[in-house]
Amino acid sequence: MRDISNKYNTLRSAIAEAIVEVSKSSIEAIRSNSVPKGDVFTVAKVAGVLAAKNVSQIIPYCHNIPVDFVDVRFELLENSIRIESEVRSVYKTGVEMEALTAVSVAALTVYDMLKMIDDTVVISKTRLVEKSGGKSDFITELDRGLKAGVLVLSDSISAGKKSDESGKIIVERLKKEGIDVRHYEILSDDRDKIEKRLIELCDGQKLDLILTTGGTGFSPRDNTPEATLKVIERQIYGIPEAIRAYGQDRTPYSMLSRGVAGIRGSTIIVNLPGSRKGVRESLDMLFPALSHSFKMLWMGGH
């Protein structure tokens, strides 16, 4: 089973269909509700709904997900029955298998209901019609590539007492996202130095994105949020809120981060925690949605 613990919840949906080929006499029997086993569509719908809710019990690598909505619909054609299932869930992984299982079991139930009166029944096609949700739905194509800077803010790392790991994690992740890292630097927790460097990277180098790591805790020398607030012109409240909420599901210490985010000119600055785990989780939360902020910033709107 794949590890999805680093993913975040989004609205997922999927629609699947199956075609069951039957005789004209079966079509008439269904219309007149004269099938000996009873109301075909009512029984098949219930079977499909139950199937969608129990996929993880019958398909080994499917996760046990909270199913928020299931519907199974039927359409009588001349010599066939079209069955469509729709499933929705707010979760970390898609629901296409739930939709496919629902429509498959509904088709099998139709087969079972009709087999005693029709030996020509064939389930001829089962397919996924559409699906939505997940990170891929939130990828934003930008007119140009992004230029980024990474600042590691720590007295101990700056003094050579510790080696930087979190900053390097950020650099590698930015490169993976196709972002050009133009600046990487380690600074002490001196507030004035942080402010001056942020201003130079925004106004001088015209970077699009600056990610900082470290200095967001409660220590008297944790000055990153204060330095950032002094530099930015507009605060972005949602980004640090989302980072903390995402992290809080994974550690009780996430709420202790004082990181902020904001805009100076055309540069977005985001404070990340200093720990490797906190940085990785924050980056998982930020991408790919963060790219959309530049479309907004560059007057592209939503």
Can you characterise this structure?
It is a single chain. With 302 residues, this protein is α/β, with parallel strands linked by helices. α2 (40-52) packs antiparallel against α4. The longest helix has 19 residues, at 96-114. The mean pLDDT is 94. The strands form 2 sheets. Strands 6-5-7-10-9-8 form a 6-stranded mixed β-sheet, with helices on both faces. A 4-stranded antiparallel β-sheet has the order 2-3-1-4, covered by helices on one side. It is 37% helix and 25% strand. It has 2 domains: 10-134, Molybdopterin cofactor biosynthesis C (MoaC) domain (Alpha-Beta Plaits, 2-Layer Sandwich), CATH 3.30.70; 139-297, MoaB/Mog-like domain (Molybdenum Cofactor Biosythetic Enzyme, Chain A).
Task: Please write out the topology.
Layout lengths: L9 E12 L2 H8 L8 H13 L2 H4 L10 E8 L3 E12 L4 H19 L7 E11 L14 E7 L1 H4 L7 H11 L3 E8 L3 H14 L4 E5 L10 H8 L2 E2 L2 H11 L12 E4 L2 E6 L3 H11 L3 H8 L5
Parallel strand pairs: 5-6, 5-7, 7-10
Antiparallel strand pairs: 1-3, 1-4, 2-3, 8-9, 9-10
Describe the structure concisely for a colleague.
The protein is an alpha/beta fold.
The whole-angstrom Rg is 27 Å
Looking at CATH, which topology of the largest domain would you report? Molybdenum Cofactor Biosythetic Enzyme, Chain A
Which series of helices and strands comes N to C?
A: EHHHEEHEEHHEHEHEHEEHH
* CATH structural class of the largest domain: Alpha Beta
Q: Reading side by side through the largest sheet, how are the strands ordered?
A: 6-5-7-10-9-8
CATH-level-2 architecture of the largest domain:
3-Layer(aba) Sandwich
Number of continuous helical runs? 11
Assembly level: single chain
Mind describing the biggest β-sheet?
Answer: 6 strands, mixed
> Could you name the CATH homologous superfamily of the largest domain?
MoaB/Mog-like domain
How many angstroms does the end-to-end distance come to? 36 Å
The structural class is alpha/beta
- Shape summary: elongated
- DSSP strand count: 10
How many separate domains? 2
